[in-house]
Every structure is written in structure tokens, then in C-alpha cells.
What we know:
The chain has helices spanning 58-65, 88-94, 115-126, 131-145, 161-173, 191-208, 219-225, 243-248, 253-259, 267-272, 344-347; strands at residues 9-22, 27-42, 47-51, 73-78, 81-82, 98-101, 179-183, 211-215, 228-233, 236-242, 313-316, 319-321. The chain is an alpha/beta fold. The strands form two sheets. Strands 6-7-8-3-9-10-12-11 form an eight-stranded mixed β-sheet, with helices on both faces. A four-stranded antiparallel β-sheet has the order 2-1-4-5. Helix 3 (115-126) packs across helix 4 (131-145). The relative contact order is 0.12. Mean pLDDT is 88; it is low at 1-5 and 331-351.
Amino acid sequence: xxxxxxxxxxxxxxxxxxxxxxxxxxxxxxxxxxxxxxxxxxxxxxxxxxxxxxxxxxxxxxxxxxxxxxxxxxxxxxxxxxxxxxxxxxxxxxxxxxxxxxxxxxxxxxxxxxxxxxxxxxxxxxxxxxxxxxxxxxxxxxxxxxxxxxxxxxxxxxxxxxxxxxxxxxxxxxxxxxxxxxxxxxxxxxxxxxxxxxxxxxxxxxxxxxxxxxxxxxxxxxxxxxxxxxxxxxxxxxxxxxxxxxxxxxxxxxxxxxxxxxxxxxxxxxxxxxxxxxxxxxxxxxxxxxxxxxxxxxxxxxxxxxxxxxxxxxxxxxxxxxxxxxxxxxxxxxxxxxxxxxxxxxxxxxx
Length: 351
């Protein structure tokens, strides 16, 4: 039974653990917690940016949303149906609603298939279109993504990186999806081509009413395309804020450090901006810290951070943050109104 939803995508308590086996008998000795209790929503027609350093679980999260990985726990409701509970045939029928644009356009395209065959494959699997109707739909998709119809019988190796990514986007659009996960779609492209692909995604969103999860480590590009931004660290979302609010004033110490590394086009502001350099090593997702995942590197850490894992909660104007410094329910000693007292910014763990 389909349930009424106000958001196109609702993620609640999603976990994606990969088991670790050791010893001669290959016994289960632990888990790599690639995604650990993640919750968020995406409104219809919105672009949610997902950022974080390499290895934080961004791509794993995107694949788990679409059931390319089997989630360990949690709910993923897309267009009113819990994808995590769908059986094989029901999931197959759900595929047209949700699609993915992969990071490496060369690796994600079959080198033995022509452009026409690649774009038309979803139409063969999920529709009853005749050969003529299917070819017309392929030409329509090529027009939408800016590919010349004369290229229909060419193979992936005959295209540039940007053109190959356009093929991947056309394939994702073939079945008129509502939700598309863009897994670092510009990471493997030249800088001169990246803006073209992002502008194409924006144009398609305006024309077709698409909803995106845009995964990237390029914070400048996320600022251009996203409506809201989720910052991920070691398998957990540490801050989720409207784009302009996040870039103007990040709340979580990790988000603050991450954004301090973004290139500043204004030379005056670039000279005065203070770069935050994190110390310490990134913990293993197989053995995360007992308390806050960021406590081993956080410049504002205090005693509570070492023993208690913060949850993601609302603080102001649609912003969410997972940090004890902002916890209104259990304020730390010396905090004021749920916001950090200046002494926490200097005393650190000695408190």
C-alpha cells in the first residue's frame, strides 16, 4: 500500500555495514560501518548536495538508497514506497522511478555496445515500445542531453569524457525517473567540461522536475547546484543546512574545517581567511570512536564528546547539526541557549 508523502525521498536510520571475517575459520569479527544511522529527506524538485572527504561513505549511501547494496537496517521511502522492503519483482518495477549517474563514465558504459544500444537498453527491459518508437525515444534523449543524432551508432571509446557522461545521463533519463542519484558525476571530467555537465543537470531538472542527490567532494560545484547540503563524516551526517547558510556560517567543527579549504575567488578575502588544519588520523570505520566520530580530530572537543555520540537535531532555521556544542536538550557546562560558550572553543578536552 502506497502512503501519502510530503517529501519524495525519506531516509530513516539507514545503516550499511560490511562484515569483516578473520581467522582460519573466517568468523565474523566485526563490521565496517560505511553508513551508520543516517536520516534525511529530499523534497520533490530539490537538489540535496552530499559532501565529505574520500572514504566517508557518500557513494555507499547513494547506492544503498537505490538498493544497489542491500541495506543493513533502516527505511528508504521513495515516492511513497519503502524500497528496502520491496521484493525482487516489485523492486524491478520501481527501478524506472529511481536512477543513477555514475562517477566514471567510461567504466559505467559497455564498450561493446553502441550509443543507441546503451541508451535503449532500459527501454527494452522496462517498456513494450516497438523498434521504431524506441529509436525515436533514443533520438529524443540524445537531443535532451546535447548529443548529435549522427553519433547513434558510435561506441563509447569514440567519445570524450564529457560526451560519455552525457550518454550516462541520457540512459538515466530513459524511463522518466523522478529521483536521480548523481554519484560524483563530474569527478572524472576536465575542469572545462564540469560546468557544462552541471548546467545540463540543472536544465534537465527545470524541464523535467527531477529530484537529485548530488554527491561530490567539489564544494564549489555543490554550492552552484544544491539547494541544501549534507556534510558527512565517517558514515554519519554531521550537518544538514540550506546551502547559503552553510557556506556563510558552518555550525559543525568538521563542516567549518571542510569549507575553510574551498578556494576563495576574492583575493582580499582569501588573504584574511584562516585555514583550519585538522590534526590526528581519520579513525577506521571498522572501529569508530566511542563518542562523537569527529572527537579524535576536533579542535573544540570536550569531555562529553569522548563518551556520548551526538544525534542530528534541529537548531535554527531548518538547520540540523550533530554536535554537543549545540544540543539544546542537554547543554554542556557553560553553554548559552544551545550555542557554544566561548570557553569551549579554547579549553578543548582539558575540561
